[in-house]
Amino acid sequence: MALNSKLTKLKVDPNTQVNLADWTTSIKPLYSSKKKHQELLNELHEELGALQDILYAHNRYALLLILQGIDSAGKGSIIKHVMTGINPQGCQVYSFQQPSAEDLDHDFLWRSNNRLPERGRIGIFDRSYYEEVTAVRVIPGLLEQQHLPMELLDPTKFWQERFQDIVNLESHLHRNGTRTVKIFLHLSKEEQRQRLLERIDEPKKNWKISRADIEARQHWEAFQTAYAECLSATSTEHSPWYIVPADDKLNAQLLVSKIVTETMKTLQMNYPIATEAHRKELAEIREALEKE
């Protein structure tokens, strides 16, 4: 599938000053029909499943997939449809909702650090520590809940320091074998409106919407600005952001699948090679089985 050229255009190069208005939320369909979309997705599932099997056996790398975006951007859809082909034994998914009282009494990276994937596994964050430099920055009152000393809340440097903390964390993870793939699902305001209305109109989706979604929507421009600054400050060579057009969920599924697959291909991993002692042991086991 000729998607590699598309991925290059989605990647945020280090030191890029992002203006989300310059990044499209919609591209032409990468599939000719829903049937063709499923065929393409199945091919990627098969490839991703094979790579995950090697990742698990090699047991030296981990993969962290971070999904960010405004409400209804399609994070759940990505998890459901993109990760279908992988073995649940080697994957863990965490959805970061409102922090608990315990979370708020720790540093802002604490609850995420406790859920990072072990070597050999894929970890998926539905939202993440990036909420701490977007939602916490935009929604009134959230920062105050974190009980920080007043002298540390200098607005001229507070958010830049948090960006640097995140970059430092991801550099640390990279040096310890965890590869971080960061996806920003870029949704238009009109498409979000349609999806929110759909959640109201379809009874089985009513549970997905609350007044908080509408209140957050009232801060649309502030969120766009906060995300733009975040993407600009935290996209690095080893942990880049990808801004994925999200108005078409089927396109987004293909693009994210390809991003994850291509990232895993860069890992220098293989199935463990049996040592001489292990080969001898295998020969003895074979002999015992053949004598039965």
Automatic annotation (TrEMBL):
GO terms for biological process: polyphosphate metabolic process. Gene3D superfamilies: P-loop containing nucleotide triphosphate hydrolases. Keywords: Kinase, Transferase. It comes from the Bacteria. Residues 32-267 form the Polyphosphate kinase-2-related domain. GO terms for molecular function: polyphosphate kinase activity. Pfam families: PPK2 (PF03976). NCBIfam families: PPK2_rel_1. Belongs to the polyphosphate kinase 2 (PPK2) family. Class I subfamily. This is Phosphate:nucleotide phosphotransferase. It comes from Nitrosomonas communis.
